[in-house]
Amino acid sequence: MPDGIHLFYVDLDETLVRIDLLRHQLGQAIARQPLMILQAARWLLRGGRPRLKAEMAKHYPLDIATLPFNDELIALLKERRDSGAELILATAAPEAWARAVAEHVGIFTRVLATDQTSGNLKGKRKLARILSDANGQPFAYAGDAHADLPIFEAAALPIVIGRSAGLAGRNASKAIVLPPPR
User: pTM for the complete prediction?
Assistant: First the structure.
């Protein structure tokens, strides 16, 4: 590849898809069964966000066909894949949802996601997993949130979704900025 970057890590929520999956699924579950909010609170109290995410994924599978995918990002990723890049879905979403999305999209070689063993894969915890996975190789990272700042700053190529390049911190001058969610 011309820029020497062969690893592309991609966030899921509000990046690959234009919504936050947990908020979306939780909102739908509560709308159908208002008392489900009590169950969600129990899961949260008895295992934190990783347990809540795992239980939601177990009880409320995604309807992949209805997800609003970020077509601009997917087009960029396919171009990079066709040029030899390896694409990895790296997300704080529950592993079951992440795997379902990765299988549907069909461009990712592997998935790094939240599970009850490794905890909520967000911010510095996600950065640690990416650095371990990348094994010293330069990488690109596509994300959308302030929690992604340490990852953007470690990335050789930050890809910022829906915000200004400033979200990439000291790497803002290298950032690719894609349009915000519609």
Answer: 0.92
Distance from C-alpha of 84 to C-alpha of 79, rounded to nearest angstrom: 9
Q: For each successive 10 residues of the chain (182 residues), what is the average pLDDT? A: 83 95 94 94 92 92 93 94 96 95 97 86 94 96 94 95 84 87 62
Q: Is there a single domain that holds both residue 137 and residue 97?
A: yes
Instruction: Give the Cα separation of 107 and 75 in Å (integer).
Output: 11
Token representation of residue 83: 């040029």
| 83 and 140 together in one domain | yes
Task: Compute CA distances 109 → 9, 58, 103, whole Å.
Answer: 11, 23, 10
DSSP per-residue letters across 36-81: HHHHHHHHHHTTHHHHHHHHHHHHS---GGG--B-HHHHHHHHHHH
Residues 11 and 95 in one domain: yes
Which domain, by its residues, includes 55? Answer: 21-65
